[in-house]
Amino acid sequence: MTRLTRCCAALLLVAVAVPAFAQNASWKTHTDMQDIRDLARSGNDIWAATGGGVFVLRDRRTPQESDTKYTNIDGLASIDPRAIAIDSKGHVLVGASNGYLNIFDPASGWSTVPDIARASDKPQRGINVLRTRGDDVYIGTDFGVSVYMPAQQRFKD
User: Fold this and answer.
1) Closest Cα partner for 42 from 54, 52, 32, 34?
2) Model's pTM, two decimal places?
3) What CA–CA distance (Å, rounded) separates 69 from 31?
4) Digit-coded pLDDT (tens) for 102-146
5) 29, 55 in Cβ contact below 8 A?
6) Could you give the CA distance from residue 146 to residue 73 in angstroms, rounded to a whole number?
7) Nearest 5 degrees, angle CA 27-CA 9-CA 6?
8) Residue 110 is inside which H or E element, if any?
């Protein structure tokens, strides 16, 4: 191959590859959300933790909002949630099989609390149950119960 041929081949490869990499903004996750594991109610909206992520069924009396699905592309740390709850401030809390706790604030979107998932001294760290009481969130995990305080963004001793 001549130098000119190699150069043209390289330019052609770049011209084809660059648009393929530029498509990242349009990625989607297609999951099966038929396996509902837990439900929570916020006003007239129903939130569901499923084997493929989270979805919310919106109150049909508010036509400006539609049903919404959330997966790892939308901010969840896992598409395998087991538990869901709504706290006193209207935040949606989602606990996953890998120990990640996600919190949805309608004003700012999803955030992740990785503390349980990163507890390397525990062989199994899945979150199975979420219950709220006052400003505290009781988290039933594979290794016991933890209490999280969302306002302080920390766990109780």
Assistant:
1) 54
2) 0.78
3) 10
4) 999 989 999 999 999 999 999 999 999 999 999 999 999 999 999
5) no
6) 28
7) 140
8) strand 109-113
Residue 85 near residue 75, CB atoms below 8 Å: no
Name the token pair of 89.
């401030």
Structural tokens at position 92: 């949606």
* 122 bridge partner residues: none
Residue reference for tokens 């919404």: 68
Neighbours of 108 (CB within 10 A): 9
CA angle, corner 48, sides to 43 and 50, nearest 5?
A: 175
As given in the structure block, the two tokens for residue 84 are 């869901």
Residue 119: helix, strand or coil by DSSP? coil
Tokens of residue 62, six digits: 């508010």
